Amino acid sequence: MLVLIGLYNQLLIMSIIAGLLYLILKLFSIATHKYFSAAWHYYTYLLISTFFLIPYYSVLSAFNTFTRKTAKWAQSPLIELGLPPSDIISTVSTSTIQISPKSHEVFSYIRLLPYFLMAGTLIFIAVVVCKNIRINRRIFIACQKTDDRVLLDILSECKRSIGLKKEIPVYMCSFIGTPLVTGLFRPRIVLPNIEFSSEELGYIFKHELTHIKKYDAWIKLLLLFINALHWFNPLAYIIRFDIDRFCEAFCDKTVTGSMNKEERRKYCGLILSVLWNVADQNTKLFSAFSDKRSIEWRIYLIMKTEKSKRWVRRAAVAFTLSFALLGTGLAYAATGTGSANAPLSTSGTANVSGLSADFENMEVGDIVYVGDIAIQRVADDAQGPGDSMVQTTTEGFSVSDFAGNQSLDKTLSLNSTYKYWFIWIDNTSSNKINVTIGNDETTQTNNFHQIPKGKYYIWSTNAWPTSSQTVSFSNGAGMYGSAAARLCSTLAEAEAHNG
What we know:
There is one protein chain. By secondary structure, the chain is α+β, with helices and mostly antiparallel strands. Among the domains are: 113-298, no CATH class; 344-496, Jelly Rolls (Sandwich). The protein has helices at residues 2-27, 29-35, 38-50, 57-70, 77-80, 92-96, 104-110, 113-141, 149-162, 198-213, 216-229, 234-256, 261-281, 292-303, 310-334, 356-361, 441-446, 491-496, and strands at residues 143-145, 170-173, 180-182, 188-192, 367-370, 373-378, 394-399, 407-413, 420-427, 433-437, 448-451, 454-460, 468-474, 481-488. The strands form three sheets. It has a six-stranded antiparallel β-sheet with strand order 5-6-12-9-14-7. A four-stranded mixed β-sheet has the order 1-2-4-3. The model is unreliable at 68-105, 279-290, 337-357 and 387-391 (pLDDT under 50).
């Protein structure tokens, strides 16, 4: 459960960042359409779409972790972790470092969110698969593999000219109105039953073969998968549509790159004639030649013969790199993993496997937030909670000596008065003490911690359910030290942990 919540939390961050990058890029679309090439648009939009899928910021996070551990100038862990200096650390326990409280009722709804999003993904995939099966079945019922020698000779010549050796069969179909390519492993070209001249067939074959050579079908499949993961984000649909348009324009430019002006005019005429055929047949199938909204821009790019100036090419490269860095930086900041001034914290993140590595690196005064609890390393000479109680704080339990026990269960008897708690742990051996807090599986998984040697406070940052909660201590090699817990009526008392 909590693994899913963590995964979809990252997915939502990636969805927001990729969508934001797309919107920023659209603000410059008038200028980019005028100066930058179709290839630039295609690859830049593809790069943005990868932000939906790849957590680039994790590379920066790993680098940041490495530099934090190896930087020699970071003498003080308080400065390294962005915590207050020693003269104000005494005030931390009262109010300076907090996370926003999250109620258990809200969490119960949040934990259903991954299943809802996963269901949407599966439905999206099922719809796409069914639709493609239905369309392909309708097409190939009406298809016939052609053995027209003239047509196949033109295809062979086009394959030779673009350096493609793969066997590509050609089918004729009365159901479609435009040429298209179908099939991933065994691509096939499907032509409508329209009279094309030999020259027009050459243009069509070069266009479709270019798609095959560039593995555009596989790229579109990847975009569909990204769209399925981010089905809840309307921008994921829009960017997929834009990439399809740029793919066609890039393909046009590749095909017409060596043509003279008259040949380009004829190629544009072919696009318009096929488009007219689609409108005449009122077909619902669309391909490279039937996207009406992009026709004007495609024709503009095809007829544009002058080469881009050097400053334009440099600007295009710089623009793309800036977007990549911007997206990585935004996601890095959004996850809270990269701030140099942020405390060592995994606030709101499920702690499935424990944070033993972080705990081992903690210094006195460091605080780690995990879900709705906080963990603080305290000085080795700290005494822990005494016998006297202050205000409405009351004893939860006490373990004077673990005495080598491998497991021990205690109870926090929470009620309408005492909804908060803190636990003191003094681990005197090198064996980590595994601490599990809560009754239900979800709460236990979220609150499993491996406490290394030293003295630590663990306290609740949110009111817990008014019921008895089990606190389990365990280590197969034996536990040594002591522990104590106090029940608190307010968050301030739990943070002060001075019972």
